[in-house]
Amino acid sequence: MIDSMFTVLKTDGEEQEKAMKEVSEKLELLEEGVKELVPDGSCPIDNESMGLLDLLFCSLFGSQKVPEEVHGMKMIHPEKTPLLYSRIAAINQLPLVIELTPPHDKMVSFLKVFRENALKSSST
């Protein structure tokens, strides 16, 4: 999953589309796993009940709007992966996560530079 996400970020064109398809397939598989863990779709979360899986979700997808802004592709769709989408949205509203998340504009700037450098190095 992480390899495919990085490929989406540092490529363009057909290679990027292929990587995005891989990410989408893996996210749909992850959604199915979440359905098994939370069959009714509800699992309240707060700073005290955040588990290892929530930390993983936050690490990988918490700032999902940043790469969307940088490369223009939406990874987490509320229609395709509603449980994952709602869980990540709930995690992002936790006071602890808000406090520890770097400012959006700084992350966008960082990823833009990363992407530009990756695209330059792949074209040389």
UniProtKB/TrEMBL annotation:
Secretion signal, residue range per the UniProt entry: none
Top-level taxon of origin: Eukaryota
Coiled-coil intervals: none
GO biological processes: glutathione metabolic process
GO molecular function: glutathione transferase activity
UniProt-recorded name of the protein: GST C-terminal domain-containing protein
